[in-house]
Design goal:
The complex is a heterodimer of chains A (535) and B (444). Chain A is an alpha/beta fold and 535 residues long. Chain A is 48% helix and 9% strand. Chain A starts with 12 loop residues before the first helix and ends with a strand. The chains are: A alpha/beta (535), B alpha/beta (444). At the A-B interface, helix 1, helix 2, helix 3, helix 4 and helix 16 of A face helix 2, helix 4, helix 10, helix 11 and helix 12 of B. Bound molecules: zinc ion. Zinc ion binds next to loops of chain B.
C-alpha cells in the first residue's frame, strides 16, 4: 500500500502541505481520507468544529444538511458564521466559511432539515463514507440511526451543552489493520527459528569471540546462544516463568566475568539489551486475542462473493496460523547495539522470511478469491504485504445500533451505575435532556423564569427513563440542576474540545488506522475529565 | 456603558446563562452577575504566546468565549506545512508574520474583538508588558521559551516583608503542548502550584544518536542522515553556510549524501521525508489534537478569568491513539525549584582545586535540574563584579575563554560564593551558591 520512494527528492506541494500528518497516517491513509465523502447534519458550533478538523487535513468532500437560518445566538458560539449572515441559510454560510480553509476540499450544502431528506430522498445518506449528526432530536436520531445501520454507513452523533457533551460512534463492522500500538516488543522467533535464521544464530559461539567481536554481536544472537545453554541444562525446556527468565538473564550477566575471574560490573550495551529482550522475546508471541477473534469470526470462516479483501486475506492468514502456530514474521528489527554488518545481515534474514510469507499468503488469498469467482485484481500483493506487516495489530469492532439504545427498555448500565461519581450519569442526564426537548419542544432552562420548574420536570423525565430501563438509582441532583441552568448554552471552547475528538474518530474510521472509540465518550468540562463506555 | 448593554445581546446568551445563573458546581464564593461578562468584554486582558497550531485555535476559542482584549506574540512567519492545522492562514499568507495574519483574521470575523499582534521574540518584551495581563496562555513547541515565560511570571511575584505572597501580583499561566495524537494542558498559579521548572523532567530530551554509532556502526537510515548532518556538512561545507533545514537545496544535498552513505553500508530506507524529519527534528502534528488541547486551555482561561469554576488542578493529559483517553493529576511543586522556590541553588563541589570552570558550565548545561543552554556566569570578588564566562557576546567570550580551564580556586572563588547565572531559559539571572566539600583545601 505504501507508495514507492520517488526517484527525485522533489516533493509535491500537497505532500509538503500535509507533511506533519503524513508522518502519522502515511500516504495510504491520506489517500483514503482524500477519497472520502462526509455528511454533516446541522451546522452547529460543534458541527463546524468537527468539519474544520476534517477539512484542514484534506477530507475529499463534505455536504452540510441544515434547514435552519443563521441566528444571533449562532454567531455567539459558531466561528464559521458571519455577523452579516443572520437570517440566511446556516448550511450555505457555514459551507462558504469552511471551504475557505482548504482549496483541495469540495463542499456543498442542502438547505433542508435531515428529517425532510429522510422522508423525501430515499438514498441520500447512502452515498457517504460517514455521516456526522449534531443537535438532532431524539426522533430524527432514531430514524437516521436505523437507516444508516441498514445501509452500513457509519454514524457519529455528538452533543455539546454547557460544559458537557458526548461523542457516540455507531458502526456495524470496522476493521483496523494498523492500530499503531504505543510500544511493541520485537518479533524475533528465537524459539522457533527457520533454517536460515537458525544457521545464522547458531553459527556464533559467543564464548569464543574476542572482546572486540563480542561487543559487535547483535543481542538476538547473544540471547539465542544463552537460550540454547539454558535448554541444555533444563531438559530442553524454554524459560517461561519469571524465575526461569531470571535464571537465563543471570547466565547472560555472568558472561561479563572476565577470564581472570574479576567481576566486570559493566556489561556491553548489546549484552544489556539481550537481557532486556529476555523478558518478552524468548518465546514467540501467541496470536493476540484480538487477532484470534478475527480469525475465528464467521466472516473469515464463511467467505462469500461479497467478502471484502480484508476477510479474504484473513482467511489466508488463518490457514498459515493453523499450519505454523504463529502469525507471519513482522520482518523489521528495532535498532540494537551491533556492528553494521551483523545488524544488516540479521535484518535481511528477517525481511526475506517476511517476504516469503507475504508471497505464500498472497498466492493463497488470490486462489481463494478465484475460487469465490472474484476477479484477479481483488487482492494486490502490496495490500497483502501491508496486511502481513501489521497482522499482530488487526482489530475488529462490531458496534451497536443507536436506535436500539433509544427504543430498548432494558439498556444494561448496571456495571456502570454502581459508582455514583461515574460520568455515565451524565449520559443518563443528557438522554433525559433529549427526551425533555422532544416532549416540551424547548430546552430545560431555556426561559429565564422556567429554570426552577424545569428542574422538576427534567428530574421526572430522567426518573421515568431509569425506571424504563429497570433502575431505581437516585441521580445526584446537582447534575440535573447544572444541565437546567445551561438552557440552550453551547460553549464554544467545549464544542471545540468535542469537535476535535469527534473529527479524529472520523479520520480513524476512514483510514482504518488507530482504534476508534467503542462506543461513547462523555466529556465533563467542569472537572476536565472524561470517560468512555460501551453501550 | 455601551459595552455593558452589548452584553445583553442575544449572541451572548450562551455565556450569560453560564455566568449569570447560580450553578451547583460553581465556586462557593462566586456571585453570578452580568458584571462578569462585562469584565470579560471590556477589561480582561489575555496574552497568547505562539500563533501556531495551538495559538490559532486559542485565539479563536478565546475570542468566541467573550475575551476581546487579546494580545498574541509570535516571531515566526507562515510556512506551507502550517496550513494543515493553522486554520487562520491561507496559501497567499505564506511568508507573512503569523501573529499579524491571525490577529487580522479574527478581528474581521468576531465583531468587537481587538486582537493586538506582536511579531517578535518573547524576550523582546519587558516586565511591564507582561504585567498588564490577567492571564497568559502558551501554545508553544519550544521548551526554552516555556521556561523563559515561566521565569517571567514568577519574577513578577511580590512578597511582603513576612514573605507572604501578594495575590494581585499573580498572573496565572495556562500551558498546552501537543505531539501527534498526544497532548497536555496545565494550569500554573505562580508561587502556588508547580511551575514549568518544578516539572522539567516531564519534557523528554530530544532524540540524539551517539556519535560513535553514527560514525562507526550505523544501522538505521537515521544514523546515515545524522552523520551527514553533523560530520559531512561541516567538513564539506557545500554552500558555505550553516545547514538550513528549510532550504530545499540543502536538504537535497543531505539526502544525496545520506543515500550514498546508506548504500555503502547496505542500509535501506533513506527517503527525502525522513531526511527532513531528522534534520529539522520534525514533530508530527494534526489539526484535531491542537483543537482539543487549545480548547481545554481556553476553557481553563475562562474559568480563571470569570472565577466561576475552580480551574484544573493542575495537569491533564490527552491521547486518542486508542479510543479517547484523558487523565488529570496534580503535579507537585519542587521545594528547591530553581525558579519558584526562593531558595538559592546549592552546587556541591567535591574539590575546588580540581573542578574547572568549564566543568561547572557543563554541570549547568547537563544536570537535569538546570538544563541550561549557554550559561553566563558573573560574581563578586573582593567587592568588584567579575565576569567569569559568557559565551553569548563575542568580545566577552574571547576575554573570558581563558577562565574555562582554570580551577574554581584559581579563580578566587570561595565556599558559599554566590554566582549569578544568566541563560536563555530564564529572563532573570539565577543565583547559584557554591558549597565546597573540602573547604580546608582553600588555603592551599
Ligand atoms: Zn517551580
Amino acid at each position: 500500500m505504501s507508495s514507492p520512494v520517488p526517484k527525485s527528492p522533489e516533493q509535491s506541494e500537497k505532500s509538503r502541505k500535509y507533511d506533519r500528518q503524513l508522518r502519522l497516517w502515511g500516504d495510504h491513509g491520506q489517500r483514503l481520507l482524500e477519497n472520502s465523502k462526509v455528511c454533516l447534519i446541522n451546522a452547529t458550533a460543534l458541527g463546524t468544529e468537527i468539519l474544520k478538523s476534517l477539512i484542514l487535513p484534506g477530507v475529499g468532500s463534505f455536504t452540510i444538511v441544515d434547514g435552519e437560518k443563521v441566528t444571533e445566538e449562532d454567531i455567539g458560539c459558531n466561528f464559521f458564521l458571519e455577523y452579516e449572515s443572520v437570517g440566511l441559510p446556516r448550511a450555505q454560510i457555514a459551507t462558504q466559511c469552511l471551504l475557505e480553509l482548504n482549496p483541495d476540499v469540495r463542499g456543498d450544502y442542502i438547505d433542508e432539515t435531515a428529517e425532510h431528506i429522510l422522508s423525501n430522498t430515499q438514498n441520500f445518506f447512502k452515498n457517504f463514507t460517514l455521516v456526522v449528526a449534531t443537535g438532532v432530536s431524539e426522533k430524527v436520531l432514531v430514524t437516521l440511526s436505523k437507516h444508516l445501520w441498514e445501509c452500513n454507513v457509519p454514524l457519529l452523533v455528538c452533543r455539546s451543552i454547557g460544559f458537557l457533551g458526548y461523542v457516540r460512534l455507531q458502526i456495524k463492522e470496522h476493521t483496523i489493520i494498523e492500530a499503531h500500538p504505543d510500544s511493541e516488543s520485537p518479533d524475533l522467533r528465537l524459539d522457533i527459528p527457520w533454517p536460515a535464521l537458525q544457521e545464522y544464530l547458531d553459527g556464533v559461539n559467543i564464548e569464543q569471540l574476542d572482546q572486540k567481536e563480542k561487543n559487535h554481536v547483535p543481542p538476538p544472537v547473544i540471547l539465542r546462544y544463552y537460550l540454547n545453554k539454558y535448554k541444555e541444562s533444563h531438559e530442553g525446556k524454554l524459560p517461561e516463568k519469571r524465575v526461569e527468565k531470571e535464571a537465563l538473564k543471570q547466565m547472560i550477566r555472568d558472561s561479563g566475568n572476565s577470564e581472570e575471574g574479576k567481576q566486570r560490573f559493566v556489561l556491553d550495551e548489546n549484552f544489556e539489551q539481550a537481557i532486556h529482550y529476555a523478558n518478552s522475546c524468548v518465546t514467540t508471541r501467541a496470536v493476540p486475542d484480538h487477532v484470534q477473534v478475527i480469525l475465528d469470526d464467521d466472516c473469515c470462516t464463511n467467505l462469500t462473493q461479497s467478502s471484502s479483501s480484508f476477510w479474504i486475506m484473513c482467511a489466508a492468514l488463518r490457514e498459515m496460523v493453523e499450519a505454523e502456530g504463529a502469525l507471519p514474521v513482522r520482518g523489521t528489527l528495532p535498532d540494537m547495539a551491533a556492528d553494521t554488518n551483523s545488524y544488516v545481515t540479521l535484518q535481511n534474514i528477517y525481511q526475506k522470511r517476511a517476504q516469503q510469507q507475504v508471497e505464500v499468503i498472497y498466492r493463497r488469498a488470490s486462489q481463494i478469491a478465484r475460487n469465490l469467482g472474484l476477479s484477479q485484481e481483488t487482492i494486490t500483493e502490496s495490500e497483502v504485504k501491508y496486511f502481513c506487516k501489521h497482522s499482530s495489530e488487526l482489530h475488529l469492532i462490531r458496534g451497536t445500533c443507536i436506535a436500539d439504545e433509544y427504543q430498548k427498555t432494558n439498556l444494561d448500565l448496571t456495571a456502570y451505575l454502581e459508582d455514583p461519581d461515574s460520568l455515565i450519569f451524565y449520559y443518563v442526564v443528557l438522554r433525559g435532556l433529549e427526551r425533555f426537548i422532544g416532549e416540551f419542544n424547548a430546552y430545560p432552562g431555556q426561559f429565564e423564569d422556567q429554570v426552577e420548574p424545569d428542574i422538576l420536570k427534567l428530574k421526572g423525565v430522567i426518573g421515568k427513563l431509569l425506571s424504563e430501563w429497570g433502575y431505581s438509582h437516585a441521580l445526584r441532583e446537582e447534575r440535573v440542576y447544572e444541565v437546567c441552568r445551561y438552557g440552550t448554552a453551547e460553549l464554544h471552547s467545549v464544542s471545540s474540545i468535542l469537535g476535535g475528538c469527534a473529527a479524529q474518530e472520523v479520520i480513524k474510521v476512514i483510514t482504518n488506522q488507530y482504534k476508534p472509540l467503542n462506543n461513547i465518550f462523555i466529556y465533563d468540562g467542569i472537572n476536565c475529565t472524561s470517560a468512555s463506555f460501551c453501550l | 456603558m455601551e459595552e455593558f448593554q452589548e452584553g445583553t445581546q442575544k449572541r451572548w446568551i450562551h455565556l450569560r446563562n453560564i455566568l449569570e445563573r447560580p450553578g451547583p458546581f460553581s465556586r462557593p464564593e462566586y456571585v453570578p452577575s452580568p458584571e462578569i461578562l462585562e469584565f470579560l468584554l471590556t477589561s480582561c486582558k489575555v496574552l497568547i504566546i505562539g500563533a501556531g497550531g495551538l495559538g490559532c485555535e486559542l485565539l479563536k476559542d478565546l475570542a468566541m468565549m467573550g475575551f476581546r482584549h487579546l494580545h498574541i506574540i509570535d516571531m515566526d512567519v507562515i510556512d506551507l506545512s502550517n496550513l494543515n492545522r493553522q486554520f487562520l492562514f491561507r496559501h497567499k499568507d505564506i511568508g507573512l508574520p503569523k501573529a499579524e495574519v491571525a490577529a487580522k483574521y479574527v478581528n474581521a470575523r468576531v465583531q468587537g474583538c481587538q486582537v493586538v499582534p506582536h511579531y517578535c521574540p518573547i524576550q523582546d518584551r519587558s516586565e511591564g508588558f507582561y504585567q498588564q495581563f490577567h492571564v497568559i496562555v502558551c501554545g508553544l513547541d519550544s521548551v526554552p521559551a516555556r521556561r523563559w515565560i515561566n521565569g517571567m511570571v514568577v519574577s513578577l511575584l511580590c512578597y511582603d516583608e513576612d514573605g507572604v505572597l501578594d495575590q494581585s501580583s499573580v498572573i496565572p499561566l495556562v500551558d498546552g503542548g501537543t505531539e501527534g495524537f498526544k497532548g497536555n494542558a496545565r494550569v500554573i498559579v505562580p508561587g502556588v502550584t508547580a511551575c514549568i521548572e518544578c516539572t522539567l523532567d516531564l519534557y523528554p530530551p530530544q532524540v540524539t544518536y551517539p556519535l560513535c554509532t553514527i560514525a562507526n556502526t550505523p544501522r538505521l537510515p537515521e544514523h546515515c542522515i545524522e552523520y551527514v548532518k553533523v560530520a559531512q556538512w561541516p567538513k564539506d561545507n557545500p554552500f558555505g553556510v550553516d545547514l538550513d533545514g528549510d532550504d530545499a537545496q540543502h536538504l537535497t544535498w543531505v539526502h544525496e549524501k545520506a543515500v550514498e552513505r546508506a548504500t555503502q553500508f547496505n542500509i535501506k530506507g533513506v527517503t527525502y521525508r525522513l531526511v527532513q524529519g531528522v534534520v529539522k527534528n520534525i514533530i508530527p502534528a494534526v489539526a484535531s489534537t491542537n483543537a482539543v488541547i487549545a480548547a481545554v486551555c481556553a476553557t481553563e482561561v475562562f474559568k480563571i478569568a470569570s472565577t466561576s469554576l475552580v480551574p484544573l488542578n493542575n495537569f491533564m493529559i490527552f491521547n486518542d491513539i486508542d479510543g479517547i483517553y484523558t487523565y488529570i493529576y496534580e503535579a507537585e511543586r519542587k521545594v528547591d525549584c530553581t525558579v519558584c522556590s526562593n531558595i538559592p541553588q546549592l552546587v556541591t563541589v567535591e574539590d575546588p582545586s580540581k573542578m574547572k570552570l568549564k566543568d561547572l558550565v557543563e554541570l549547568l548545561r547537563e544536570s537535569p535540574k538546570f538544563q541550561m543552554k549557554s550559561p553566563g556566569l558573573t560574581t563578586t570578588v573582593n567587592g568588584t563584579n567579575k565576569t567569569l564566562y559568557m559565551s553569548t557576546i563575542g568580545a566577552i567570550e574571547k576575554m573570558t575563554k581563558g577562565n574555562l580551564t582554570k580551577s574554581l580556586l584559581e579563580l578566587g572563588l570561595k565556599d558559599g560564593q554566590e554566582l549569578m547565572v544568566a541563560d536563555t531559559t530564564t529572563p532573570n539571572a539565577i543565583i547559584v551558591k557554591l558549597a565546597f566539600k573540602q573547604s580546608d583545601t582553600e588555603m592551599k
